[in-house]
Structure formats: structure tokens, C-alpha cells
């Protein structure tokens, strides 16, 4: 397809037929408006949209529509979104509408994608096939730089591959970014001397758009080996600016805080799928897409498709490493890997720092749960000879 196709679920208002509703979407987003107009000339007609398919689904309908590629400005993602996910959400003739997926032609994917991606991050850590284990420093706010670094050190000694800031921690006075980053990197160097393993630390540089690249460069000067961005609150182009900056030579970890306002309602909003595609196009090396068993609301079949969108061949772009996070602990590891496969970053905040014997033991327990799965042994069985895992299962159970 040379053009863009988008798939929507919708429920029409009582006085509107499904055909009229689908047509209202394509007209609003292409050449039409609510009434006939006198300014449409013949040459404009080639930019009309088209309803390609329409069928009943659940309480409403699913439609696939075609938007001519020419109405898009290549490379301008805010403009893409204004078409595929713009005014249509407010149309009164639709009681609810949800963008499920979008398919762009190659001409509209002039992006370079992830600089590292799944394989690049694996190379940095030195893994080939096992899931990565990450931790979010908890409490999410409050610790000073020294204590943050101590928690990071403990997690690194315990065996995590990745340590990250939480989404609300940026550069507040209780834990200034410079001090925190320097302290954490120093302690991670210390851990490396002891274990020989380099651990990534994703420092959250989320900030106003016109400052984010400078903040990233400053963090890199201070030794950052990974950057983190809250992509929905910062905006997609903030990610693009970071990923495309020649000075940014470390992977970018993408958190999706606020996505629930957009993705969660099964009848209205934007599914995670288009967001995942856009984050990959714009250069996110790792992206949160959710868990099958964690604390955040989730839909397993959508999640599997979202992770596929991050990893399947797509115009030669590197795959983005999917991240499962939110309410995970060692007892949940097997279910996550069974459903999501081994190309996954499994993150635990509470599930590591809540271990009865502390962060280091918590990190060991998570790694042991992954090792057990990779060896085809149940967590319960493995726990018989792995004390930290046993303690974790005792506290949280094995599911
Ligand atoms: O801090 C956490 C999880 O902490 P914990 O491990 O203590 O629950 C993340 O912000 C959530 O994963 C976000 O959810 P999502 O990944 O779905 O965006
Ligand atoms: Mg968080």
C-alpha cells in the first residue's frame, strides 16, 4: 500500500449509521467537513479518504480507512497524529472511537529508528538469549543521591542488568540530577570492579522540549550510559530530538506514563499499538508495553501484538526491546516469559526492594527466577537450592 491505512473501533450515535460514522472519520481527516463546501476543486479530490472495510465488532464496529500518503508531511509525526488521531475523537456522531493500529508506507517512515535496539542493548550487557532484569529505584521519590546510589549498587551486585529512575524523578531539589547521576555511576563502577559486569543506568532526563537535548548532553558529559524519557508527557518529538542527536550515543529507555488515559478504555482512545510503532520509528531503544500478570491493567492479546510491532521486521529499523514492568516479582517471571518470550526486559521495583532481605537479595531472586525458567525448572523447584528466590516466593507467592 502506497497510502496510510488506519483501523478504528467505533460506536456510532443512535441517529448515525455505521457507514455514515466511518465516512465522517475519513471526511473530517481528509478533504471534508460537516457540510458540502464550495471551495473543493476537482484536483483536491485525489486527497479524499476512503473507507476500505467495515464490520461489526463487540458493541460497535471496526473500520479500516485509507488516507492518501500525500496529505502527510513526511517525517512530521505530530502532523501524522493530527490526521490519524486528531479531530475524529471529538466527533459528536461517534459515541466512542479508538485507533487500533496504523500502517504507514515506506515513504512516511524516513526515520532511522533505534540506534541500539534490542540487539544493541544485549551487546552492551553481553547477553544472547535470556530476558534482561531491570529495577526501578524505589521509593520513586525521596531518596537523596547517596542513598539512591547505594540502592543502585546493591541491585547491581545482586545481578540486575538495568537500573532506572522512576517516571516522576527528574531534577528535584531533594535529589538533583547531577549529583544523583555522578553518585550512581561511581557506585556502578565499584560494582563493576567486583562483578566484572557493566550495568546500565537510565537517568530520567524528561524536561521541556527545548531543553531535553541539552539535558541529555549534560548527562552524557557526567557519564550517563543510558537515558530515560517519559514519552507521552514530553511528547513524541522530544524522543525524536534525543534519538536523532548525533551526540546521543547511548540507548534510550522509554517510559509511557500517562498512556493509561489514552490507551486503557477499550472503546475510546488510542491503543498502545500505534504508540509502539511511533516510538520505534522515532528511535526508542526500550519501551514499556506492559505485563501479563502485573499491577497495571492489561490485555494479553493486545500486548503480544504490541511487542511484535516492536520486534518484527519493519522497513529495516532495529527492533525496540519491549519492557514488562509494573507489579512484577520473582513469582511472576515464568508467566511473563511464557507469554512474552525471552526478548523482554523484566523490571521490578517493589518486587526487588521489597524482598525481606533487601535489594541485593531481591535482585538475586529475580535473576534466579529467570535462570530457573531458562533451565526449564519451576521456580518452586529452583527455590529449594536458591535461598533468595525461596524468600521471595514465601513473601509474594508463585504466580
Ligand atoms: O515504577 C514502575 C513499576 O514499579 P513496581 O515494579 O514497583 O510496580 C513503573 O512506572 C510501571 O512499570 C509503569 O507501568 P507501565 O510499564 O505499564 O507503563
Ligand atoms: Mg514507575
UniProtKB/TrEMBL annotation:
<feature type="active site" description="Proton acceptor">
    <location>
        <position position="255"/>
    </location>
</feature>
<dbReference type="InterPro" id="IPR017712">
    <property type="entry name" value="RuBisCO_III"/>
</dbReference>
<feature type="binding site">
    <location>
        <position position="288"/>
    </location>
    <ligand>
        <name>substrate</name>
    </ligand>
</feature>
<feature type="modified residue" description="N6-carboxylysine">
    <location>
        <position position="164"/>
    </location>
</feature>
<dbReference type="GO" id="GO:0016491">
    <property type="term" value="F:oxidoreductase activity"/>
</dbReference>
<feature type="binding site" description="via carbamate group">
    <location>
        <position position="164"/>
    </location>
    <ligand>
        <name>Mg(2+)</name>
    </ligand>
</feature>
<dbReference type="InterPro" id="IPR017443">
    <property type="entry name" value="RuBisCO_lsu_fd_N"/>
</dbReference>
<comment type="subunit">
    <text>Homodimer or homodecamer. In contrast to form I RuBisCO, the form III RuBisCO is composed solely of large subunits.</text>
</comment>
<feature type="binding site">
    <location>
        <position position="166"/>
    </location>
    <ligand>
        <name>Mg(2+)</name>
    </ligand>
</feature>
<feature type="domain" description="Ribulose bisphosphate carboxylase large subunit C-terminal">
    <location>
        <begin position="119"/>
        <end position="396"/>
    </location>
</feature>
<feature type="binding site">
    <location>
        <position position="167"/>
    </location>
    <ligand>
        <name>Mg(2+)</name>
    </ligand>
</feature>
<feature type="binding site">
    <location>
        <position position="140"/>
    </location>
    <ligand>
        <name>substrate</name>
    </ligand>
</feature>
<keyword id="KW-0120">Carbon dioxide fixation</keyword>
<dbReference type="GO" id="GO:0006196">
    <property type="term" value="P:AMP catabolic process"/>
</dbReference>
<keyword id="KW-0479">Metal-binding</keyword>
<comment type="function">
    <text>Catalyzes the addition of molecular CO(2) and H(2)O to ribulose 1,5-bisphosphate (RuBP), generating two molecules of 3-phosphoglycerate (3-PGA). Functions in an archaeal AMP degradation pathway, together with AMP phosphorylase and R15P isomerase.</text>
</comment>
<feature type="binding site">
    <location>
        <begin position="325"/>
        <end position="327"/>
    </location>
    <ligand>
        <name>substrate</name>
    </ligand>
</feature>
<keyword id="KW-0456">Lyase</keyword>
<comment type="similarity">
    <text>Belongs to the RuBisCO large chain family. Type III subfamily.</text>
</comment>
<dbReference type="InterPro" id="IPR033966">
    <property type="entry name" value="RuBisCO"/>
</dbReference>
<feature type="domain" description="Ribulose bisphosphate carboxylase large subunit ferrodoxin-like N-terminal">
    <location>
        <begin position="2"/>
        <end position="107"/>
    </location>
</feature>
<dbReference type="InterPro" id="IPR000685">
    <property type="entry name" value="RuBisCO_lsu_C"/>
</dbReference>
<feature type="binding site">
    <location>
        <position position="256"/>
    </location>
    <ligand>
        <name>substrate</name>
    </ligand>
</feature>
<feature type="site" description="Transition state stabilizer">
    <location>
        <position position="295"/>
    </location>
</feature>
<dbReference type="GO" id="GO:0016984">
    <property type="term" value="F:ribulose-bisphosphate carboxylase activity"/>
</dbReference>
<dbReference type="InterPro" id="IPR036422">
    <property type="entry name" value="RuBisCO_lsu_N_sf"/>
</dbReference>
<dbReference type="InterPro" id="IPR036376">
    <property type="entry name" value="RuBisCO_lsu_C_sf"/>
</dbReference>
<protein>
    <recommendedName>
        <fullName>Ribulose bisphosphate carboxylase</fullName>
        <ecNumber>4.1.1.39</ecNumber>
    </recommendedName>
</protein>
<keyword id="KW-0460">Magnesium</keyword>
<feature type="binding site">
    <location>
        <begin position="347"/>
        <end position="350"/>
    </location>
    <ligand>
        <name>substrate</name>
    </ligand>
</feature>
<dbReference type="Pfam" id="PF02788">
    <property type="entry name" value="RuBisCO_large_N"/>
</dbReference>
<dbReference type="Pfam" id="PF00016">
    <property type="entry name" value="RuBisCO_large"/>
</dbReference>
<keyword id="KW-0560">Oxidoreductase</keyword>
<dbReference type="GO" id="GO:0000287">
    <property type="term" value="F:magnesium ion binding"/>
</dbReference>
<dbReference type="GO" id="GO:0015977">
    <property type="term" value="P:carbon fixation"/>
</dbReference>
<feature type="active site" description="Proton acceptor">
    <location>
        <position position="138"/>
    </location>
</feature>
